Amino acid sequence: xxxxxxxxxxxxxxxxxxxxxxxxxxxxxxxxxxxxxxxxxxxxxxxxxxxxxxxxxxxxxxxxxxxxxxxxxxxxxxxxxxxxxxxxxxxxxxxxxxxxxxxxxxxxxxxxxxxxxxxxxxxxxxxxxxxxxxxxxxxxxxxxxxxxxxxxxxxxxxxxxxxxxxxxxxxxxxxxxxxxxxxxxxxxxxxxxxxxxxxxxxxxxxxxxxxxxxxxxxxxxxxxxxxxxxxxxxxxxxxxxxxxxxxxxxxxxxxxxxxxxxxxxxxxxxxxxxxxxxxxxxxxxxxxxxxxxxxxxxxxxxxxxxxxxxxxxxxxxxxxxxxxxxxxxxxxxxxxxxxxxxxxxxxxxxxxxxxxxxxxxxxxxxxxxxxxxxxxxxxxxxxxxxxxxxxxxxxxxxxxxxxxxxxxxxxxxxxxxxxxxx
Length: 422
Ligand SMILES: [Zn+2]
Prior knowledge:
Elements: E1 2-9, E2 17-25, E3 28-34, E4 39-48, E5 50-55, H1 71-82, H2 87-103, E6 106-113, H3 117-125, E7 128-135, H4 140-153, E8 160-166, H5 174-181, E9 187-191, H6 195-203, H7 223-227, E10 235-239, H8 245-253, E11 258-260, H9 262-267, H10 275-280, E12 285-287, H11 300-315, H12 323-329, H13 332-337, E13 355-359, H14 371-378, E14 384-389, E15 392-396, H15 404-417
Parallel strand pairs: 1-4, 5-6, 6-7, 7-8, 9-10, 10-11, 11-12
Antiparallel strand pairs: 1-2, 2-3, 4-13, 13-14, 14-15
The structure holds zinc ion (ZN).
């Protein structure tokens, strides 16, 4: 039995507990309540580990590639540079992504993986994950072969569940989506991320023409309408920036889960997803960092603040997203979107012992008045003291030697992708 306490415990399934305690045994939470343990974290909060609703762990060091270019050329740059990597490089980068996630307090991630390297990396370093293996195109045999080949090459880990990701409506046929959904495993895609996507799908024009050989022929419809025949509760849709009122209504009616990635959408110039409208319509929304291919980091605290800043700016209302609601988006709600809320997302007896301990000392929010605001506005990866997955400590800030090898190998892989200097 392990017992931890802190000045604050935020179970997320109920109000914050001042001087709270969490007990767990064999990886399962057994008790959450008031009390002090022998291991007490002063000036700190214990919260459910973050559930990241959208990541690409193997793009951990793609930071800055194609920055400032349109969505089409941006994808093109990434495809080119990815082609310079060996499978070992991809594994090194995925390990770095796992390390950075754990250091940011993330205990579960929903990862779309091109090479499948995320499976091994998450299993080794102890991050809970659903890894959606990416498939593309319109040829079912080619996609099925790619999926089976990847799956057979991957190790099995109790923390990792395998899913499949038909990439997007402009790169995959509806038939491929139907096949993925028939497999009975988690399915995730990218949907309505950019206006460029709608332009290609409706008219076959625009910046995505740059990668036309990899694209599906235009459907003549917007992205949501293109996928309408397959939209349902089993298809996790990342982004959903370019959705109008009727499309939001359809997503709600079909109970389609959405991963909201505000930093990625903003930095790629795609826009601000209508988070308040999606939530008001009853759509299951979780927060996701996406990857350093588009965002600077797997820093979920930065994502939380960006979600709040952009929701309030878009709606012109300060209550468009409150701190405790944002925290729920990155824990309880993300777990609901991924349909794993019976296992993770809140500090509830019977759920997995996935916890994050965050220091609040010397932040502008300390002494604490509202602990959710202190964590969300005052938190950062530098303030994460410890990350626990399945009852096991997977990250401790005081251990500075952890992952030294992981970092240097990943840096070497990034160096190979850098544009040659003239
Ligand atoms: Zn993505």
